[in-house]
Every structure is written in C-alpha cells, then in structure tokens.
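Supplementary Note 3. Input sequence used for the single-chain structure prediction.
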Amino acid sequence: MNTKEIRYALIKLNNALLEKGYSHPDCDLTVTGSDPVTVWVKTSRLAEIAGIFASVEGDTVREALDNALSDIEARESVDDYKKKEAVKSFGRSIDALRTAGFDADFIDPLAANLKAMSENLLTHQSSVETVQ
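The predicted structure, written as discrete structure tokens, is reproduced below.
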C-alpha cells in the first residue's frame, strides 16, 4: 500500500466511527521494526459512553487496517448503547421500588413495560445483526 491508500483507509475507519455516532474519531497507524503493525482507534469520551481507545494489530499494513475496520463494525452504535443502558437503569429503578416496599399494583405495570422494552431491544438488535 502506498501513503495515499493508507490515508484513505484511515479516513474510512474514521468515517465508520462517525456513522456509529462516536465523536472526534482519530485512527492512526504505527509501523516499527520489531512489533506488528498497529492501528490505533480512538474517539472522544461522551458523557453517556466511554470513548474508544484500542489497538488493533496485523502482520501487514493491509491486515491491520482490515482488522481495525472489522473491530469498528463489530462495535455497537452510541445510540444502541444509550438505549441498552437506559433499559438497565429502568430495571434497577424497578428493583429499588420493590426493595422499598412499593405495592405490586404500582410495580407490575412498570415491570411489564420493562419487559416490552427489553424484547424490543433484542428484536431490534437481532434484525440489525441479520442485515449486517
């Protein structure tokens, strides 16, 4: 690969992160004389989700870049992460209400809503995985 091809591949990685909702992506490549070729995948930390700081290796520049793209494609989007965390938080709230002794008449409808949201997330997640 020449420098121009490497630059375009790094831009492709940054764009893939942007498409998933990550902010300020910054991917770069390290080639040394003794270590494997490494692609560094970095994003800014968002208030709701930790940023990414990962190294992805390969025996060649092409392999490292391809591995990095596979790593990015396997990550969930920021929106999906936020939805999953909101449902978890809702579940913890329902557990806290039970622990505090609230009436089942009050808690049961909330638990039914939580179950529906969880099933919706699972259905959405598996349909996205099927498309990919």
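The beta strands are 26-30, 37-42, 53-58. The chain has four helices and three strands.
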